[in-house]
Predict the structure.
Amino acid sequence: DVTGVTLKYNDNDALSLDHSISSFTFKRVAVNTDLTFTAKAVYANGRVSEGETIHATIEGSAASKPGFLISYDNASQIEDDDELAAYNWFKTTYPAGEVITPSQLTSVDLSQYSMIWMQIDRVGIGQGWNKLPSSLISDAAVAALKQYYMDGGSILLTKHATQMIVPLGRVAADRAPGIFSDGNGGTGTDIWTINAVIGSDQTGAIDNRSHAIFSGLSTSDEYSHETYPLEGPGLREDHNCMWDLNSYGFPALYPNGTNVVSAFQNENSATVLATWGHVTDWCCAGIVEFKPTTTYAGRCIAIGLSAYEWKQNSNTNAYQSNIEKLTKNSIDYLMK
């Protein structure tokens, strides 16, 4: 009466496999370190076996360099100030990192990259993944990036690039980011922060502050609850590309009292890591980690919050260091 199998690799989330599966291949694993694999049988009556665990060490060299994917043939063509600022920081912070052009997606071995970052943040770009730069959404480009992701490569999608999660096939089209803006923005006097405690005024709040991507970030007293400031007063573009979790009909799909955050996480094997700083209920997702699945062996982090602006328009961002720290933490986390 075996109905399924769970397979766990080190401290990663367990994968749920069909009972007919007799083998499974991890296409990317850590090298030169002790690996633990545990398989358990799941029975029709709900019982789960104690399982069997094996240890292994794979010798070899891991991919150690990150890639920065641009939509141009050459980095000198980058026009948007936020994309250019992110590129310049990447080149300085990761000297061994490489810029990847659209043509290289299909002409180089992407397995050499431990992770790939795509940063798109443009005024007037329009909503929808099909409005992203055409060079990045061609059938060949999407297929190459999708294969990399499925084979265990990790991806960081920031700002308008979060929409790329749809053509990559990781979420359904009707789960695309629905909170979207691409205007010129305006001047404000407040501090834009992010809240890593989801549902912080609700019973059963999800506290993600111990997650590696938030390590070392300075905090703010802008609200009565702790948040991380990303952008200070001044002229700001206010570009969101994130998830409205109330828009997917979750109460009807999951009528047993599950909040919309838990419903989205369970449905998509994901973790909602942060939202807007002022939000303290179950509402929306600004930073999401999409975990490995049986189809997608890699990880993906998507950051779509308006506060994540690489080049503040009117002055130097007082919290630029948090933007940079959040990004470095994310890249380093995905490189492991």
